[in-house]
Amino acid sequence: MKLTSPNLIAWPGVGCMQDLARKALSCPRLQASIGSRTTTSLSSFVVLRLMLAVAVLCPALGLAGPADDRVQLVHFFEKRFPGVPLEDYVYGALIASPGGRHQYEQIMEFPPFLGDLEKGKQIWETPFHNGATFANCFAMGGRNVVGTYPYFDNASGKVVTFENAVNACLRTNGEAEFAYGDREPMGVLTAYARTLSDGMRINIRVDSPGAVAKYEAGKQLFFRRIGQLNAACAGCHLHNAGKIMRMEIISPALGQATHWPIFRGGEELMTLQGRFKRCMEQMRAVPYGFDSEEWNNLEYFLTYLSNGLPLKSAVFRK
């Protein structure tokens, strides 16, 4: 799969960016701002902005939207890993390592991080000063809810992650918020809380113009080359998924949002955004930061791609 520009990686099944941009330019609502310029005179960045805008302004043009993206992604990996059941993608890179999968299943019979989950449970069940608990802030006491996060909130115009919801619960009950990215209390709390939704099918909705814009912003970051290594998320987790880099098998993007947090080596707690941080550091780029708009949008995009897959939270990784 060849690159379409110095800064972007091609989406599986999507044709040339310039062809899509020409289609976008037929939209009357965009023509006024573009004027007489042709697609050959547009920078890659401008072409990308056209593609992002047209999904909202001119949906009748039929450019790929979130649902199409997910279908293309599934088909891409069906060809790349023939015979792998769709639901096995919750195991990440282990789909390409039968031996690693066997070791994982043995370790998960008595996972070494049970103490951390117990700490999280204690925090979850400890009453606030007003007598309420975290369970009072979520439907069904917090069971089978994580599969709907992140979601786009029309009132604020922002993506709301599960960690955002935890801090909103604390604010509502007059408690101090937890720091995003901290192992304790936020990390262990959400590690436990996510286990309450194990087996729930991910069901992320992108059903408004604002939601589409955030989804596309996350998608743009996923494909954009960054850092001194000029690398992109897509370069590893699409085109090189299943290959070995630095003695580790690269995980596929499909299913990537289903199994967080992980415990590396059974001890190091790492959330999905913690993984974003590590990846950006490895690409020698300056990380955006926990709960940044950029990472929340990226989490929204990635989680949507795993719609329909079951959650498998708090797991062991090497």
Q: What structural keywords apply?
A:
mainly alpha; 3-stranded mixed β-sheet; globular; 7 strands; 318 residues; Cytochrome Bc1 Complex, Chain D, domain 2; disordered N terminus
Structure description:
The chain is mainly α and 318 residues long. 42% of the residues lie in helices and 6% in strands. The strands form three sheets. The protein has a three-stranded mixed beta sheet. The protein has a two-stranded antiparallel sheet with strand order 1-2. Strand 3 (244-245) and strand 4 form a beta hairpin. It is globular. Mean pLDDT is 86; it is low at 1-6, 14-20, 36-48 and 51-62.
Note the topology.
Layout: H1 17-24, H2 28-34, H3 44-57, H4 66-80, H5 98-107, H6 114-125, E1 151-153, E2 158-160, H7 162-172, H8 183-195, H9 209-223, H10 233-237, E3 244-245, E4 248-249, E5 262-264, E6 268-270, H11 272-282, H12 293-305, E7 315-317
Parallel strand pairs: 5-7
Antiparallel strand pairs: 1-2, 3-4, 5-6
